[in-house]
Amino acid sequence: xxxxxxxxxxxxxxxxxxxxxxxxxxxxxxxxxxxxxxxxxxxxxxxxxxxxxxxxxxxxxxxxxxxxxxxxxxxxxxxxxxxxxxxxxxxxxxxxxxxxxxxxxxxxxxxxxxxxxxxxxxxxxxxxxxxxxxxxxxxxxxxxxxxxxxxxxxxxxxxxxxxxxxxxxxxxxxxxxxxxxxxxxxxxxxxxxxxxxxxxxxxxxxxxxxxxxxxxxxxxxxxxxxxxxxxxxxxxxxxxxxxxxxxxxxxxxxxxxxxxxxxxxxxxxxxxxxxxxxxxxxxxxxxxxxxxxxxxxxxxxxxxxxxxxxxxxxxxx
Length: 317
What we know:
This protein is an alpha+beta fold. Helices cover 16% and strands 31% of the residues. It has helices at residues 22-27, 81-90, 117-123, 161-166, 177-186, 191-194, 223-231; strands spanning 5-7, 12-18, 43-48, 54-62, 71-77, 98-101, 106-112, 133-136, 139-143, 152-157, 171-172, 237-245, 254-257, 260-269, 274-280, 292-294, 297-301. A hairpin with a 4-residue loop joins strand 14 and strand 15. The longest helix has 10 residues, at 81-90.
């Protein structure tokens, strides 16, 4: 069945970064290459601490040329939007940029469907390739830069969003339940639920494979630790999707294997049968996926096809 859904996630909001120095300004701060952002391309990126720890995630798209002065539209976590604006503004110095809240004028929408990756992209005139973008409905539509299987993200003028979404012949996923079940089944973290500001490390959360990092770009905040983690093989644990049998564990509940703590639950969804957990890689060595306990539940990890794990025997070191 190729049914399409749309969802207006209240947990995502918009800010604009405008001005003639906007590309160079963001380039020196975020983990992806802003030179790639264009009318036909959007990127996913993060802003880190100087020590390489996660602070914010964002999707960066180009504001349509017919919608006023050139600017980037940043899709970010709603409840941390003011903090991101403040943080970016701190780094402006003499750069000719302006950072502003854009949530009154723009909104984020998601278009997706189980087994309907191509359908979501085709509905807005795109090929199902991660990051491809096109002008749509006075805004912009782009295939999710993390994984094409997540469908299409849209930034739409708030006043026209209902009209444009109504023309897509998609079902309103009001609560977001369908979307988050898809996301968790694919093993893709929601930064607001699954990453810990000022503590989480990108490579432990699959951000490399999810296209949040450009390894060829110049310096950015936190680059040194991120590169060291990669090139020295310092990843010892990974965020993975898990299947849960029994009562859903609370976030932070330890995963136990033979009495040893081997990770922790980060989030669960819906009826609690699926979730995401941080798992020590040594628990996966030997080629047999273990069954953990977390409270009164049994927890079994999945390894999605997009995940690239290090040599598991090395994870014991």
